Amino acid sequence: MGDVAKIETKHRRMVSEIPHPASQAVIDELSKLEPRSMAGFSSVVWNKAEGFQVWDGHGNQWLDFTSAIILTNAGHSHPKIAQAIRDQLDTHLFYSYCNPTEIRLKTVKAIIEILPPYLDKVFLLSTGTEAVEAALKLSRMHGQTIAPGKIHILSYYNSFHGRTMAAQTVGGFLDQQEWMGEKPGGFHHIPFPECAFCPWGKPKYENCGAECLERSLEQLREQGVQDDLFAGVITETFQGPTVAFMPPDYAHALREWANKHKALLIFDEEQAAFGRTGRWFGFEHYGVEADLICLGKGITSSLPMSAVAGRSAILDLPEHGEMSSTHTGNPLCCAATIANINTIQEDGLLANAAALEPVMQRSLEDLRERFPGYAGGHNGKGLAWGVYILDPVTRQLNPNVAQSVITRCMELGLLMLPTGARGTLKIAPPLCITEEALLEGIEVIEQALAECIGES
Ligand SMILES: Cc1ncc(COP(=O)(O)O)c(C=O)c1O
Q1: Of 185, 165, 187, 186, residue with least CA distance to 176
Q2: Over 60: is that where the pLDDT of 257 sits?
Q3: Is the CB of 143 under 6 A from ligand 1?
Q4: Which residue among 8, 60, 357, 450 is least packed, with the fewest CB closer than 10 Å?
Q5: 149 CB contacts (<8 Å, ≥6 apart)?
Q6: Ligand 1, atom 13: closest residue by C-alpha
Q7: How far is the CA of 99 from the centre of ligand 1 (A)?
Q8: Which has the closest alpha carbon to 88: 73, 98, 103, 110?
Q9: What pTM was estimated for this model as a whole?
């Protein structure tokens, strides 16, 4: 990373080389003390983040299209969330284990209030991967109330659900699973219905959602995995790197299949919930009911908190002591959750995300028109967007160009999510972003793409 031209706009300020030498010292020392896997995320040493902006300690200021990792939906360091955490500190209750607390009660009530009414119980945890593990456990327990051996779980290639053993096994990046040596049994993946890259090679979508699901299931049947063996199916509401949503008719077919075979339908909403798509929960766009949903990330816009929400009949399957956690309902995280939900409501962030959807749609259409060889289309709703970066000759995803655009954006004062290796650009700013800032960021992407393909 070399010198950076000085940049000063309303939302960006680049005044030093990146990383600043003092930042590089921090990066170098961390790499000596932490595992290799923690290095290489970025050359920006975060010092302060507010609203939709991030600063290092050396006068550089970035516009943030990442929400850190699609987490700070209400905005970084929102004053109301900060105050709620401070107020909770002042009560001198920082930790309470599973002992009942008023703040835990208020938290589950606040979540239940925004859930569809049939999802009437919530179990609080700390990380997204734990929420997924809990949902898988509940599904297998439920399956076995119906038939012994009804424990199999269906999920999707190219999905991400966390890094613990079952969460990673159910995830669909098989290249990330080699470390296991031997994988736990009973997990089966099928292609996600991502129409831009149709798993069945169809040139375009033709109301073929039900057929798409049936073809995948037929392949499993041919391998001896019969539908009635499934305890559940889990899907990200939209796929992480591409922000591809299922066609609604696919989601309906999946719901019908789950009903027919008494399998639970689980939406992993860790990226999609809390206003990200212009609604409280992303799966609401599909018009189908969920049996369980996994929540995390944007649940606090700050401190670690996650949850599984579902119907009582399912959440009540474990006996006393069979499903709990050391950090369930941590009071500080609870305070952040309640304040976050109130803030999203009071600041009108669902409406802001929904209102900016057409702005994103138009801007990304313009990007495609300006770079027809490279910008190969986009997916998204609200303020979650994925742009395919293609090789103009092969029309396949182009990780090299995507990665160099992301790096160049960082040098130009725009933080982007690390989806380069998957050949996409992902845009997910805090939901408090203004139209002006959003358009400034898109212009940076255009400039970076032009430079990276030698068109500037
Ligand atoms: C859809 C989804 N599920 C689960 C997880 C895992 O969450 P955590 O990193 O909090 O364990 C993530 C994290 O990126 C995610 O995006």
Answers
A1: 165
A2: yes
A3: no
A4: 8
A5: 229
A6: 162
A7: 27
A8: 103
A9: 0.97
Half-sphere exposure of 249 (CA within 13 A, CB side): 10
- Indicate whether 418 pLDDT > 80: yes
CB 339, CB 80: distance < 8 Å: yes
Cα–Cα distance for residue pair 155/161, rounded to 1 Å: 10
Which structural domains are found in the chain, ordered by start?
7-74+349-452 (3.90.1150.10), 79-346 (3.40.640.10)
| Residue 240 token pair | 């992480």
- Mean pLDDT value across residues 24-38: 96
Amino acid identity for residue 330 in this structure: N
Helix (H) / strand (E) containing 426: strand 424-427
- Binding site membership of 128 for ligand 1 (Cβ less than 6 Å): yes
Question: What amino acid occupies position 279?
Answer: R
CA of 128 to the centre of ligand 1 (A): 5
Q: How far is the CA of 286 from the centre of ligand 1 (A)?
A: 21
Distance of CA 66 to the CA centre of its chain: 10
Q: What integer is the mean pLDDT of 376-400?
A: 97
Distance 270 CA to ligand 1 centre (A): 6
pLDDT range class, residue 4, cuts 50, 70, 90: low
- 3-state class (DSSP) for residue 145: helix
- The ligand 1 atom at the shortest distance from the C-alpha of residue 236 is 1
Q: Which atom of ligand 1 is nearest to the CA of 159?
A: 1
**pLDDT above 70: residue 3:** no
Nearest to 342 by CA among 51, 69, 79: 79
